[in-house]
What does this fold into?
Amino acid sequence: DAGVTQSPTHLIKTRGQHVTLRCSPISGHKSVSWYQQVLGQGPQFIFQYYEKEERGRGNFPDRFSARQFPNYSSELNVNALLLGDSALYLCASSGGGYTDTQYFGPGTRLTVL
Amino acid sequence: TQLLEQSPQFLSIQEGENLTVYCNSSSVFSSLQWYRQEPGEGPVLLVTVVTGGEVKKLKRLTFQFGDARKDSSLHITAAQPGDTGLYLCAGEGGTSYGKLTFGQGTILTVHP
It folds into this structure.
């Protein structure tokens, strides 16, 4: 079975632009979480979605938004990009239970110039 | 705000040596997970510990959850070059549903 897939793999944007990152969960998984991993640090929680509803939100500005589609895939949108948004963006999928293991995708490397 | 302090941040050792990585917090977690991450890839789950005082072994890796469920350790016996990577601890059970709180990671390099 395929694992969590993310696209694109790499992305270069300039300050002020907008970006959309995509994630497809493991088949049968209904929950998707997004994390930001800045170089040299551990991942930081951004959002969790379950059955198309936001179920958790981390401490990120409103420039960050996400949604989940009926097929459980998800998009993360970031508006008005800043240099500090440069990071590896990770998507994780799980069954949806509170203690279900989260399985991570390979991430999207975003560079903001 | 829940925080996980992971130490050491960097570890460079010779093949065959033993090592321990620590993960500490002032907060209680319902479970604590250890991940390993290779460059250009997402974190891969190694183990989940749930019960205070729990010890789990995975070949040469031994994981322990503190009695108060605030800290954990990862011990590797006879490290091998294939153990090289970024090791992350992550706690679950925060105020935000489904949120994993990660430590800053330990970069382990095992020299042949």
Q: What stands out?
A: The mean pLDDT of chain A is 93. The radius of gyration of chain A is 13 Å.
